[in-house]
Amino acid sequence: MIDLAFFFEIIPALLAGLPLTLQLAGSSIGIGFVLALTLALAQQGNHRILVWPIRTFVAVFRGTPLLVQMFLIYYGLGQFRPSLQAIGLWWLFREPYWCAIFALSLNTAAYGSEILRGAIQGVPRGLVETATAFGMSRLLTLRLVVLPLAFRQAIPGYSNEIILMVKGTSLASIITLMEVTGIAQGLISQTYRAVEVFVAAGAIYLTLNFTMISALNALEAWLTPYRVRD
Amino acid sequence: MMDIVGILTVGKGGWGVALLLASGVTLSLSVLGFLLGALFGAVVALGRLSQRRLPVWLASTYGTVFRGVPDLLTIYLLYYGGSIALTHVGKLMGGTGFIGLPAFATGVFAIGVISGAYQAEVYRGAYFAVDRGQLDACKSLGLSGFQSQRLVVVPQLMRHALPGLGNVWQLVLKDSALISVIGLVELMRQAQIGAGSTREPFVFYIAAGALYFLIAAATGTIFRWGEARAWRGMVRT
Description:
Number of helices of chain B: 9
CATH class of chain B: Mainly Alpha
CATH architecture of chain B: Orthogonal Bundle
Number of helices of chain A: 11
Order of helices and strands of chain A: HHHHHHHHHHH
CATH superfamily of chain B: MetI-like
Oligomer: heterodimer
Structural class of chain B: mainly alpha
Shape of chain B: flat
Low-confidence stretches of chain A: none
Distance between the termini of chain B: 54 Å
Largest sheet of chain B: none
CATH topology of chain B: MetI-like fold
Largest interface: A-B, 41 and 39 residues
Number of strands of chain A: 0
Shape of chain A: flat
């Protein structure tokens, strides 16, 4: 039933899509994290002019499917080609590659900002007050006290979000990008062997996710040297 | 830009009715998939909690695979895998050509399989939240093992599971958009059809997004209400 020769044929074909999957995941997780941190910090001051638009952005991107967001950016904005050309942004919205990264980044920024906001608020107030009493400026307190503790607190939640993003890159195949899932779908419709292709492509994603989780666990352990593991 | 309001109206030449009907498909697809997922999730959670090694191994593999592999890939597996098997059966019966599985049923099944993996984790976590002392109390009252689970543990477990189930539900609702790839005309697919025939993708995807948002908000309220009801009379810390 299971034909090893077939696996040796499809695995290299599927691995050819891995660089694209990694690029999409890597760029969107990176850009998304920077955006998420910015959004989380911007809400700390409780200025209504800042908080209200950010909350709206977060609610919209968490409340709608990623596929809708991707189609809206790729097909929807394509409708405004003349205006986008006029402001010099057409190169960005013309390419499915940039549209996918754009959509994935905004999506993960919305989820990520909530994780980071919670983690920042979870830093004990007394620590911030102590830092103030020591004469540390707000920026210095943020850099030396709040953020290191918040990042460590955020790692488990953020790990889940990173896994969701790796899985989310598969949607890019629907807007014509041939990453691992796109290639898998092509192989299934050519060979009619859905189970084997699923096993091979699934193994690639599981390996990727396991690597990410182990790296993040190691990071968490490194940031928590005193914690006794049970 | 054409007349946006005209496109989305309920009247003649408008797409309003089509979009609302498609929202109904999305909602029923999600509800049925979620319920099937509850069944799968309960079975998988039981496997995880088992004393024997094989059920534990099977259940954790199920969870790892369907939570770690992109949902789109799982949908392709179930749709193409099922259709290919069906085509083989068709050939044995003298048929020719590709036979596709019914998209709605496949969609419900796919959502069931995927959300079952997530729901299992919720149920397992909730099981441990029920105080062990309750089981001792059951014994002292002379309840059998099954009776104490059914009458004491499960009702209390649901209370702890509700917030997690609410999260899974939101995930399911958004995942249902992926069923559009196998040709089911739910909200996402209907928006694509409308966008294609009017050449107004922006309007249609905004409308689809708004409808998903409304469904998510309305159903989220139901979960919050259920949670408040489940916890009535309890002091929450």
